[in-house]
Amino acid sequence: MVKKLFQNPLVKIALLFALFFTVPIALSMVVGYQTIGGYLSPLLLLVLTWLLYRKEGKNLSELGINFKRRNIFFLPLGIVAGILFFCVLLYLQMLRNGIQIHINQNADYTLIFSSVFVLLQGVLNEELIFRGYCLKETMNRIGFMKANLIFGFFFIVWHWIAFNAWGNYLLMLSLVSTGFGHFLFAAALVKSETLYFPVGIHLGNNWAQRYLFSASMTGINAKPSHDILFILTSSGQHFSELHNATNYGLTIGSF
């Protein structure tokens, strides 16, 4: 009975997903996350994905991970799309709350633009876990909608863990938006047939959220920061919403 259960394809995918899910968490406890060692995790996840496809007589091209010009083009396209997506959402907040934008006079442009590489490891981890082998195999068996409802839920749970949101119900509710982000990334994967596209969208969104804009309640010079390009100001009554928008309320998948 037990042997038959483990021969079920969906059970195998579930066990593989659990392995993918725990690899970056376990490694972060050993080598840290925002370090060079943090890139060991996406490297291991990529090797694991390659081995799984190799066992089936396939390769990483099943996820569009190759050097074809068409596929590579989707990476910068996705980055631009992710930045624009965040900016549109922020603009909707601006219309409602009277937000003002100021250029940060203390900005270090080298630091801001090189920060893309700091965020890349987290994005690669999440894409390989939630939009990689396990998702594609699940979609092949139960369809796009059912598979992504499951993976979207676990993507939310992943961010609850990352933000230590347990018990903070406002934060937990705000992070539900990452579930919608998952559907966006999954649709990008299906339509483009390459993981480069969701990686790009994800990376562009996270970069815009963390390094393009920052909220300030008392003025643009209240707390100079070198890693933010634009500072947003609003009245005290709207500051809480503004802070949420630039920290997690509008995010679609930051880690």
Question: What are its keywords?
Answer:
mainly alpha, 5% strand, single chain
Any overview of this molecule?
- With 255 residues, the protein is mainly α.
- It has one domain (2-249).
- The protein is 69% helix and 5% strand.
- It has helices at 2-6, 9-31, 40-55, 69-97, 109-130, 133-142, 144-162, 169-174, 177-192, 196-212, 236-249, and strands at residues 100-103, 213-216, 230-233.
- Strands 1-3-2 form a 3-stranded mixed beta sheet.
- The radius of gyration is 19 Å and the shape is globular.
- Residues 217-221 and 248-255 have low confidence and may be disordered.
Quick take:
The chain is mainly alpha-helical.
* Strand/helix succession: HHHHEHHHHHHEEH
Largest sheet geometry: 3 strands, mixed
- What integer is the average pLDDT? 85
**Cα end-to-end separation:** 40 Å
Strand content: under 5%
Rg, please? 19 Å
Poorly predicted parts: 217-221, 248-255
Shape: globular
The number of distinct structural domains comes to: 1
